[in-house]
Amino acid sequence: MTLRLNFLFCLITLLIQANPGVSHPNTTWLNTKGYGPDSPKYWILFKAKDQSVRPALSEMAITRRRAQNFPLDETDQPVSVDYLNQLKQEGVQPLNKSRWLNAVSARLTTSQYAQVAALPFVAGIQAIDPAIIITSIGNPDGSRSTSPHMAPVMTQIQASDFAQAGLTGRFVNIGVIDAGFFGADSANALKHVFAREGVKRVRDYVNDKKTHGDLFHTLETMSDFHGTEVLAAIAGSDPIENTQYGLATDATFYLARTDQGNREYRGEEDNWVAAMEWMDSLGVRLINTSLGYAKGMSNPKENYEPRQMDGHTSLISRAAQIAADKKGILIVVSAGNEGDDRSWRIISTPADAQGVLAIGATNARLWNRIGYSSIGPESLPYMKPNVSCFSLYGTSLSAPVITGFAACIMQANPKLTNKEVMAIIEKSSHLYPYGNNYVGYGVPQASRAISLLRNQPLPATARSVKASGKSFTLPVSTEESVVSVFHKKDAMHILQQEAMKVSNGKLALRRSTGEKQTTIDLKTEVIEVIWE
């Protein structure tokens, strides 16, 4: 298996072409803690905590929790210092600590594994294999992009409606967890963010010796552009080109680099969890993560399988669910780019967690699923992806668009909980309530979100009709000559999507084998055909 990194990212033209003093990519690597790529890494899970220790949170975070009615609990307390000291006595050096999971990550030899497993305070050990593939980071086709492609999505989601309402993400703190932010402070699309000191704190979990400036000025691999692109898709605006790339132009940002891109296989989900907890400790309640983890473990016994994308098997999905249920954090996650991979096809973790907002990608014209966008597993009892929007170059660029959408909602009503914001985004989407496991509830619409925020009734844009037999002629009112049709085996799961021509104001539907429902997507109206 290979990681698709043979590309330039789609906003690279927004960056400076040369930067004196920039470090260049290496061809070999050794992480900052002195271990090579073959040293196995594990989660060590503990049995208990010291209840007398104060929560490891800032006053801002505690205030936010109280305001949102999320009580402090033992998941806010740090892991036991006594346990850490006993591990060190065994010659084990913890890498990352997780108060949510009550665990630490560490590299263990075979003998250390046995010694640690026998310790009375250890509840279990779980592998973090170095062969986890990051699924959302690259262009799906491996191509090189040379011009920005984010602007069209602003029309699709009705960005101008938020602008007219004065919603720009002001006063909203956004965390971005990604693979690098090279050149962010010199990108034309982000100059307004840095000019107002909108990036408050940064942290590099791959190289903890890097300073604030190093994260922006040291290029280790081409994937270090990725977080810059994501940031631009959340908050980008280029006055020279008179182009808006993201919705949250006035938001405040906290950035974390958790993945290193100059080696083929990475297993750094412990960095991801650590970054989540760091942002939570600072009071951040909206986080974008355009990284997804799926297949690829070298030991078959420890390999993720599609059936394990169930929302609770992976520890990062468990952490994401804790963030949603106990910390009040809205996590916006890219669904993944494996839709064309017949051996996988489905979303990656942590997009499988019920509490996160998983974002797929649509085509520009028809708003149905673009081929690479990962689909929701049929085994899940809930909808995944939740919503979608246009992105030519991966779900890692559709997720930040919806992060900006969420920031506008949170600015409009800061008292909303993460789940209430999530519900507004879903209900504002153009297919609601007739979603599916290809595009979720479809494309969020700013005009509908604003109506929901104002407690105004939504226009009647959804209806159902009953049909029988093998075919059905449906009158439709649309200016579109071709529309999307989703053939479904039940209310949620797709048999196939189809582009159908409208002839004389009618659609000639033919029922497929096993088809129970059919969704007709007219963009401004959705019709659900229920076959009897």
From TrEMBL:
Domain annotation Peptidase S8/S53: ranges? 172-442
Q: Name one Pfam family in it.
A: Peptidase_S8
Note whether Heme occurs among the keywords: no
Q: Does the keyword Signal apply?
A: yes
Q: Where is the signal peptide?
A: 1-18
Which InterPro entries does the record cross-reference, listed alphabetically?
A: Peptidase_S8/S53_dom (IPR000209), Peptidase_S8/S53_dom_sf (IPR036852), Peptidase_S8_Ser-AS (IPR023828), Peptidase_S8_subtilisin-like (IPR050131), Peptidase_S8_subtilisin-rel (IPR015500)
> From the UniProt record, which GO molecular function terms apply?
serine-type endopeptidase activity
Source organism's superkingdom? Bacteria
Catalytic residues per the record? 178 (charge relay system), 226 (charge relay system), 396 (charge relay system)
Q: Name one GO biological process term.
A: proteolysis
The UniProt keyword set, sorted, is: Hydrolase, Protease, Serine protease, Signal
Q: Which family does it belong to?
A: Belongs to the peptidase S8 family.
User: What's this protein's name?
Assistant: S8 family serine peptidase
